[in-house]
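Before the break, one more example. Copy the sequence into your notebook; we will annotate it together after we see the structure.
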Amino acid sequence: MEKRIGTITILITDRTQSAEINSLVSDFADIVLCRQGLPFHDREVAVISLIVEGTPDRINALTGRLGRLKGLTSKAVLT
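Here is what the structure looks like once it is written out:
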């Protein structure tokens, strides 16, 4: 299957999920090219953006596992 480049944006409203998010991103390190995080302390929300390159199945696997966590929303956009 052909590799694609894309982004995954994660909006976190429950900061207690940080360890689980970090663990998932580490599990998929083979497809993560870049990670950028921005906490908004005054709004109690954080944003993480990932640049990824991998098969659609692998990228969707990461997005799906993130989507099962409470207190966050994630979306993927692929080329």
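The longest strand covers residues 45-54. DSSP finds two helices and four strands in the chain. Try to locate both features in your own notes.
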